[in-house]
């Protein structure tokens, strides 16, 4: 297995704000799609089915290769 599939739900809150939820990490795209069917009937998700995103994620690879800056409001 060289990759897994991350299932996210992204809900737009306004012009620049989003509420992102990592639903789970799955061995296959089919498993992630099955999870959408399971959680898609729950409150909030049922009203925003278009917010689901399945993202392939390669294993044993650096995904954040740069430094970071913390922005304080």
Element layout with pairings:
Elements: E1 3-12, E2 18-26, H1 29-39, E3 52-58
Antiparallel strand pairs: 1-2, 1-3
Order of secondary-structure elements: EEHE
The helix tally amounts to 1
Question: From the helix content, strand content and strand pairing, which structural class follows?
Answer: alpha+beta
Number of domains: 1
Q: Helix proportion of residues, in percent?
A: 10-25%
Question: What characterizes the major β-sheet?
Answer: 3 strands, antiparallel
Unreliable sequence segments: none
Number of DSSP-assigned strands: 3
- Proportion of residues in extended strands: 35-45%
What would the principal axes of the Cα set say about the shape? flat
Terminal-residue CA separation: 41 Å
- Neighbour order of strands in the largest sheet: 2-1-3
Please explain how this structure is put together.
The chain starts with a strand and ends in a 15-residue tail after the last strand. The protein is built from 1 helix and 3 strands; from the N terminus they run ββαβ. The chain has 73 residues and is of the alpha+beta class. The model has no long low-confidence stretch (mean pLDDT 93). Helices cover 15% and strands 36% of the residues. It has a 3-stranded antiparallel beta sheet with strand order 2-1-3, with helices on one face. The chain has one domain.
């Amino acid at each position: 297995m060289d990759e897994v599939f991350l299932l996210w739900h992204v809900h737009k809150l306004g012009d620049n704000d989003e509420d992102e939820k990592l639903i789970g990490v799955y061995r296959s795209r089919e498993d992630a799609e099955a999870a959408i069917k399971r959680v898609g009937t729950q409150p909030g998700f049922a009203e925003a089915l278009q917010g689901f995103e399945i993202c392939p994620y390669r294993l044993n690879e650096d995904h954040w290769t740069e430094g970071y800056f913390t922005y304080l409001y």
